[in-house]
C-alpha cells in the first residue's frame, strides 16, 4: 500500500504541474483546470488509502460532504463579475484550514511534547509557521472579500486607507509578538518541560489574525487584485509548511506550487502597475476621492456622443479596438459586445480586443468574460502586443475601463500611477468611452483621456448602450 500511495502522489504531482502549464493560455485554461482537479482528486484518494486504519471515517466522510456542499454550489452559481470575491473567499478557507491543522497538531501532541518517532523540529517549525501565515491569509482574505463585495462602509474604508501608517506600526508590533510567542512555544516543545498551555497557540492565532486584518484593511481597491494573488501565495506556503509538519508529500508539493506560482503572479501584476510589492502592502494608494471633481481638475470639457454617431464612426473604420474593463463585467455586456463586433466584421471592419494585465479584478478576468461570449482567442491581444496598433486604429472603444487607459501614467510625473504601463488608447484617431458617469476608477484619480479632443463619451449602462450601437449599425 505504501508503494501505491507514493505512485498516486507522483501521478497527482505530474497532473498539478501539467494542469498549471495549461493555464498559460486561454485555449488550454479550461483543460488545465480539469487536469489539476483530477490530480487533486487522486491526491485525496492517496491520503485516504494512507490513513485506512483510522477510526475516524465518520469525520472524514462528513468533512468531504461538507466541503462539497459548501464548495460546489457557490462555484456554479457565482457570476463572472463576482469571481474575484469567490477566489478570495476560497483562498481564505484554505488559509484557515491550515491554521486549524496547526492548532490540532499542537493539541494532539500536548504542546509538541509527545511526538513519537517523528523529527520534532519540522513538526514544530512547520506547524507554527502554518499557524501564523494561515491565520494571516484567512483573515486578510475575508477583508479582501468584503472589499470586493462592497460589504464595508465606503466612508469607513476610506478612513482605514487614510490611517495606513497607524496600521503599519500596529502590524510591526503584531509581527514581533507573533514571532515571540512562536519562539516561546518552540523552545518549550521538549518532553522534559511541562507542556505549554493550549492558551498560547490560541493567542498566536488571534494575534496573527489581527495582523491579517490590519494588513489588508488599509489597502485601496486599486491594489486588491495584487493582494488576492499575494494572499494566495501565502496560503500555498502555509499549506506546504503544514504538509512538512504532517509529513504529507501532497500538501508539501501542492503548497509549494501554489506558493511559487502565486508569488510569480504577484510580482508580474505589481510590475504591470509599476509598483513594488512592499509599496502595495504598506502604502495607502487608491483610497481617496481625487476623481470626484474630474472636470475642474483637468480643466477640460467633455464631449458627449450618441449611439448613432458611435455606430457611424465604427461602421466606416478600417480597424476598431475594444478595450474592456470592470464596467463591462458589471453590466454583463460581453455578449452585446460580441454581437456588435460581428456586425462590424460583416462590414469589413477588423475588430481586436486590448487586454490590460490588471483589467477587471483579477488576472484573466476580461479574457474569461470575452471567451464566454465566444470571442476568438486570437482576437484578444495582450498589452504589449496591441499597444503599437493604436496609432493605426480609427476607433478605440473603451467599455468600463479607467485607470488602465489613463495617459497621466505616461505623461504626468506627479500622478500616483506615473510609470504604470497603460494601453495607448489616446493614440487612436478617435476614442469612444462608455461609462455610467464621470466617476474615477479604483485609483481615485482623474483620467485626462475623457477630456481629450479626440474622445467622445457615451454615457449609460454598457450593455444597453452597446446594444443600441448594434441596432444603429443594423440600420445603416
From TrEMBL:
Pfam families: PNTB. Belongs to the PNT beta subunit family. This is NAD(P) transhydrogenase subunit beta. Coiled coil: none annotated. Keywords: Cell inner membrane, Cell membrane, Membrane, NAD, NADP, Translocase, Transmembrane, Transmembrane helix. It is an enzyme of class 7 (translocase). The transhydrogenation between NADH and NADP is coupled to respiration and ATP hydrolysis and functions as a proton pump across the membrane. The keyword Glycoprotein does not apply. Its EC number is 7.1.1.1. It is found in: Cell inner membrane. It comes from Rhodococcus spelaei. It is a multi-pass membrane protein. The chain crosses the membrane at residues 6-25, 32-51, 57-76, 88-104, 124-145, 166-187, 199-219, 226-246, 252-270. One of its GO terms (cellular component) is plasma membrane. It catalyses: NAD(+) + NADPH + H(+)(in) = NADH + NADP(+) + H(+)(out). Residues 6-471 form the NADP transhydrogenase beta-like domain. The keyword Cell inner membrane applies. InterPro entries: DHS-like_NAD/FAD-binding_dom, NADH_DH_b, PNTB-like. GO terms for molecular function: NADP binding; proton-translocating NAD(P)+ transhydrogenase activity.
Amino acid at each position: 500500500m505504501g508503494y501505491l500511495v507514493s505512485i498516486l502522489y507522483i501521478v497527482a504531482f505530474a497532473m498539478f504541474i501539467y494542469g498549471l502549464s495549461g493555464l498559460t493560455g486561454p485555449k488550454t485554461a479550461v483543460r488545465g483546470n480539469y487536469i489539476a482537479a483530477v490530480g487533486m482528486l487522486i491526491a485525496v484518494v492517496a491520503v485516504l488509502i494512507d490513513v485506512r486504519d483510522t477510526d475516524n471515517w465518520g469525520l472524514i466522510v462528513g468533512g468531504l460532504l461538507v466541503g462539497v456542499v459548501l464548495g460546489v454550489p457557490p462555484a456554479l452559481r457565482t457570476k463572472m463579475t463576482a469571481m474575484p470575491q469567490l477566489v478570495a473567499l476560497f483562498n481564505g478557507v484554505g488559509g484557515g484550514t491550515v491554521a486549524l491543522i496547526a492548532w490540532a497538531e499542537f493539541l494532539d501532541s500536548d504542546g509538541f511534547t509527545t511526538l513519537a518517532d517523528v523529527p520534532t523540529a519540522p513538526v514544530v517549525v512547520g506547524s507554527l509557521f502554518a499557524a501564523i501565515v494561515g491565520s494571516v491569509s484567512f483573515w486578510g482574505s475575508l477583508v479582501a472579500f468584503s472589499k470586493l463585495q462592497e460589504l464595508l462602509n465606503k466612508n469607513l474604508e476610506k478612513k482605514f486607507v487614510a490611517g495606513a501608517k497607524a496600521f503599519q506600526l500596529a502590524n510591526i508590533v503584531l509581527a514581533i509578538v507573533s514571532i515571540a510567542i512562536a519562539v516561546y512555544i518552540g523552545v518549550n516543545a521538549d518532553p522534559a518541560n511541562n507542556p505549554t498551555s493550549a492558551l498560547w497557540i490560541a493567542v498566536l492565532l488571534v494575534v496573527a489574525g489581527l495582523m491579517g486584518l490590519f494588513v489588508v484593511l488599509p489597502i485601496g481597491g486599486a491594489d486588491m487584485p495584487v493582494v488576492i494573488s499575494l494572499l494566495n501565495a501565502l496560503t500555498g506556503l502555509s499549506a506546504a509548511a503544514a504538509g512538512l509538519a504532517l509529513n504529507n508529500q501532497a500538501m508539501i508539493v501542492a503548497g509549494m506550487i501554489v506558493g511559487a506560482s502565486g508569488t510569480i503572479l504577484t510580482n508580474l501584476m505589481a510590475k504591470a502597475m509599476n509598483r513594488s510589492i512592499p509599496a502595495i502592502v504598506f502604502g495607502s494608494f487608491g483610497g481617496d476621492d481625487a476623481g470626484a471633481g474630474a472636470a475642474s481638475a483637468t480643466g477640460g470639457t467633455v464631449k458627449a456622443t450618441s449611439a448613432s454617431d458611435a455606430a457611424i464612426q465604427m461602421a466606416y473604420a478600417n480597424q476598431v479596438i475594444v478595450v474592456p474593463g470592470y464596467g463591462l463585467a458589471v453590466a454583463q455586456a460581453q455578449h452585446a459586445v460580441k454581437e456588435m463586433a460581428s456586425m462590424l466584421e460583416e462590414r469589413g471592419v477588423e475588430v481586436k480586443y486590448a487586454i490590460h494585465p490588471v483589467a477587471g479584478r483579477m488576472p484573466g478576468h476580461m479574457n474569461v468574460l470575452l471567451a464566454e461570449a465566444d470571442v476568438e482567442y486570437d482576437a484578444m491581444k495582450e498589452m504589449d502586443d496591441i499597444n503599437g496598433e493604436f496609432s493605426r486604429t480609427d476607433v478605440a472603444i473603451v467599455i468600463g475601463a479607467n485607470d488602465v487607459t489613463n495617459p497621466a501614467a505616461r505623461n504626468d510625473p506627479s500622478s500616483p500611477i506615473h510609470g504604470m504601463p497603460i494601453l495607448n488608447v489616446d493614440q487612436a484617431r478617435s476614442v469612444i468611452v462608455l461609462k455610467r458617469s464621470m466617476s474615477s476608477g479604483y485609483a481615485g484619480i482623474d483620467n485626462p483621456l475623457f477630456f481629450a479632443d479626440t474622445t467622445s463619451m457615451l454615457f449609460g449602462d454598457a450593455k444597453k448602450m452597446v446594444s443600441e450601437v448594434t441596432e444603429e449599425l443594423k440600420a445603416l
